[in-house]
Specification:
Length: 74
């Protein structure tokens, strides 16, 4: 998953992701995103956790800042 979070929400986003056991390989690159501006947050999310993760991001209002699932490989 790739998420661009405004700087003031990046900590809350990483808290949501870090609290979910189905999230792995969480990485935060502060200030890396240019359009829209913000912190680039990368992680892998197992399918079973995707709904909970997306719901948590929506509660933070981050969905408007381009949370987008990556393609999955089989």
């Amino acid at each position: 998953m790739r998420i661009i979070a405004p700087g003031d929400r990046a900590t809350a986003v990483t808290d949501v992701l870090g609290d979910e056991p189905g999230v792995a390989h969480l990485a935060v690159i502060p200030g890396a995103a240019r359009q829209p501006a913000g912190d680039l947050i990368l992680c892998d999310v197992v399918r079973e956790s995707a709904g909970r993760v997306l719901h948590g991001l929506q509660e933070l209002g981050v969905e408007a800042y381009a949370a987008s699932p990556s393609t999955t490989s089989n």
